Amino acid sequence: MLPQIIAANTITVDNDMRENIAVPILEDHGSVYSMIADIHAAGLPHYPVILVFSTGTEIPSSCVAMPRDPVPETQFPFDRDLASRLEEAYAINHSIHDGAILFQRQRPSQPYLCLGWSFRLAARGISSNAIPNRGSAFNSALAISTSDGIDCVGLIFESSFEFFVDGQHHEPTIAAPSAP
Fold first, then answer.
1. Which domain range does residue 106 map to?
2. What is the pLDDT of residue 3?
3. Smallest Cα–Cα separation from 71: which of 4, 104, 117?
4. What 3-state DSSP class applies to 86?
5. Residue 24 parent element (H or E)
6. What is the CATH number of the domain that holds 32?
7. Tens digit of each residue's pLDDT (9 = 90 or more) over 64-87
8. Is the pLDDT higher at 77 or at 33?
9. What are the two backbone dihedrals, phi and then psi, of residue 144, each rounded to the nearest 5 degrees?
10. E-assigned strands of the chain?
11. Domain count for the chain
12. What's the pLDDT score for residue 108?
């Protein structure tokens, strides 16, 4: 089981390992992209929503937990049910909308599990491929995607969704369905 206590340790992952972790996520259109598209289409109770994905046994040092009380349920897998889980979590404690949601797995062969609802993103580096400022959520997602231990970052707006890996902005290859 993944740690439930927030650790201050830094994950160090060499670049070859990061590429091996991140590339399948970009190519796996049937899972992460389509899940984000489905979550986007279902509509969310609050925007934007930042989803941070990590592989390892320690919480990345660039993700700083913001304790909440009461704490909505965690340890569930990232899947198409996220919109309903967000609604339930907001009903328990609306203040979770202030941070990123962290999903982590110990190994690439495992599913991502929710470790927490409200993380402050503290990226230490800025993307070397600077993109003009597109707002704090976009630029935070871009910057945090360069941090050690971060596989990728999803960002869901009311009108679109975005994806970031290693400081690169990737346009989704699955068009988000239009809302009814």
1. 17-170
2. 30
3. 117
4. helix
5. helix 15-27
6. 3.40.1700.10
7. 999 999 999 999 999 988 989 999
8. 77
9. -65, -25
10. 49-55, 63-65, 100-105, 113-121, 150-156, 161-165, 168-170
11. 1
12. 85
Does residue 180 belong to any structural domain of this protein?
Answer: no
For residue 5, count CB atoms less than 10 angstroms from its CB and return exposed for 0-12, middle for 13-18, buried for 19 or more.
Answer: exposed
* Distance in angstroms (rounded) separating the CA atoms of residues 148 and 34: 26
Q: What is the pLDDT of residues 91-146, one digit of tens each?
A: 999 999 889 999 999 998 899 999 999 999 998 766 555 677 788 899 899 999 98
* Residue 170's pLDDT band (cuts 50, 70, 90): confident
Chain centroid to CA 15: how far? 20
pLDDT at residue 175, as a whole number: 47
Angstrom distances, CA of residue 125 to CA of 75, 139, 142, 146, 147? 29, 12, 10, 7, 7
Residue 97 lies in a domain: yes
75 conformational bin, left if phi > 0, alpha if psi -120 to 50, beta if neither? left
d(CA 97, CA 103): 16
Q: Which amino acid is at 84?
A: S
Place of tokens 């503290």: 122
Asked if residue 90 belongs to a domain, the reply is yes
128 residue type, one letter: S
1 part of a folded domain: no
Output the CA–CA distances (angstroms, integers) from residue 53 to 100, 105, 163, in the order listed: 10, 8, 11
